[in-house]
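Need residues for this backbone.
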């Protein structure tokens, strides 16, 4: 029982034996551990990395063929040019009062984003790739504006256990250097870089898949809109802010 995957199964077994409050604490610990371990290239971290990743995969609340990586990438039909423009306009308004939050600015949704958050069109796109997910109705605008802002590898809280992430705008300055990008981090130490263009949407299981955004540089700006989904039938109070 010394290899990481056996340890991962034991962690998942432990999770099943706990009360809901204890489960939430264990999930938090696993999430924090994943944030440090999963992107760590040190061979000494391999056992821990595999154990945490395996436990999170087993605990993934969605029934998909492969919970790793992204479940969808594309431009959904409902996101017409007009809708995208109206969201970019709404983001501009929301951005004026967005508050600094960790390594980005956070703005709650607006009327247009909130309407999409509970729309049939968005639910259909999610259902086509991840069965059994239900909208939380929570939409958030995220703004990366100051040089160095980004998000280190992490696992999201339960209200974003399924994350629909929509790229609205990405201003990239001239000069050398790679633009900021979304990354997925995997148990074997590999990663996937996702350089999204405005209007592109990705869906991933953010509650169990470690992900990050590399820091922006001077003159770079990224505006994102995210929608949170939860497992169908989950007690809503666990998923509301
Ligand atoms: Fe996240």
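Answer:
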């Amino acid at each position: 029982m010394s290899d990481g995957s056996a340890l991962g199964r034991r962690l998942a077994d432990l999770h099943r034996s706990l009360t809901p409050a204890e489960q939430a604490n264990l999930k938090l610990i696993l999430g924090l551990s994943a944030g440090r371990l999963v992107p760590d290239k040190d061979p000494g971290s391999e056992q821990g990395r595999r154990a945490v990743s395996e436990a999170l995969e087993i605990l993934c609340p969605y029934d998909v063929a492969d919970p790793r990586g992204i479940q969808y990438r594309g431009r959904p039909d409902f996101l017409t040019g007009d809708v995208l423009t109206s969201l970019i306009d709404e983001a501009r308004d929301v951005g004026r009062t967005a508050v600094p939050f960790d390594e980005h600015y956070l703005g709650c949704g607006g009327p247009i984003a909130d309407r999409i958050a509970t729309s049939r069109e968005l639910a259909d796109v999610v259902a086509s790739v991840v069965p059994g997910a239900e909208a939380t109705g929570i939409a958030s605008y995220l703004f990366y504006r100051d040089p160095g802002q980004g998000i280190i590898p992490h696992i999201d809280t339960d209200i974003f256990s399924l994350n629909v992430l929509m790229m609205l705008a990405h201003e990239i300055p001239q000069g050398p250097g790679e633009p900021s990008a979304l990354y997925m981090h995997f148990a074997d130490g590999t990663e996937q870089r996702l350089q999204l263009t405005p209007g592109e949407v990705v869906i991933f299981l953010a509650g169990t898949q470690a992900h990050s955004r590399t820091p922006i540089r001077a003159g770079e700006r990224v505006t994102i809109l995210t929608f949170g989904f939860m497992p169908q039938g989950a007690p809503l109070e666990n998923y509301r802010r």
